Amino acid sequence: MKQKLDTTIEENQLLKERVDVQSKDIKVLKGKMQAVLETNAHLTRRLDTVSEENRDMRNILITLLDNRDADVHVATVAFSAKLNGGLVQLGQHQTVGYHSVYTNIGNAYDSRHNHFIVPEKGVYLLSFTGVNVDGQGVYLEIVTNRNQIAIVYCSLTAHSMDSQTIVEVLEKGDVVWVRHGYGGPAQINGNDAYPYLHIPAAGLIEQWLLYDIKWEETDVVHEKV
């Protein structure tokens, strides 16, 4: 009788252990099921987002197709000006007054005040050149709204020439000009009698608009000229 009772107790213990194991397995399965449900919910939300993005892209494409024949405004801006007529005396930060304007497409260069007034925001290429007077060094700088963006130095060597070409993002209404940099009064050479120069004078400033920059919501659209 006692032996049978002991056997029953052992069987009950084994059953209890099996129940404990199965309970743990069920708990693990519940955790996995919850993870699957959360993943499905995430995928559903992502699918909704992708669907919305596809609708937006479709609407943009339709708009582009509708407007493909519309007129596109691209600004055309370019000018070229030079010094001539001998030596030019400059004081500290005095503006260089170019005597001749050969090109002024878009009429953005003000020859009266020797300023270029930016007609619209864009990426511009700016170039200027200077030549010194014998034995005199001179700094010339190109500025935007009085802030230097480039500088050249013509050394003490006779007929020393220097130039700068830069690409700059300019805002509509910015004012650009060339002026004497620093170091006290100086002279620059405006004589156009030097045959070895590839430009017809010692002082030259040129400018081209490379790109318009137009804002549409948060995107930047470049239109090449």
From TrEMBL:
InterPro entries: C1q_dom (IPR001073), Cerebellin_Synaptic_Org (IPR050822), Tumour_necrosis_fac-like_dom (IPR008983)
Subcellular location: Secreted
Keyword terms, alphabetized: Secreted, Signal
Pfam families: C1q
Domain C1q: start-end pairs: 72-210
Predominant location category: secreted
One GO CC term on file: extracellular region
Signal sequence annotation: none
Record-given protein name: C1QL
Organism this protein belongs to: Mytilus coruscus (Sea mussel)
Lineage: Eukaryota, Metazoa, Spiralia, Lophotrochozoa, Mollusca
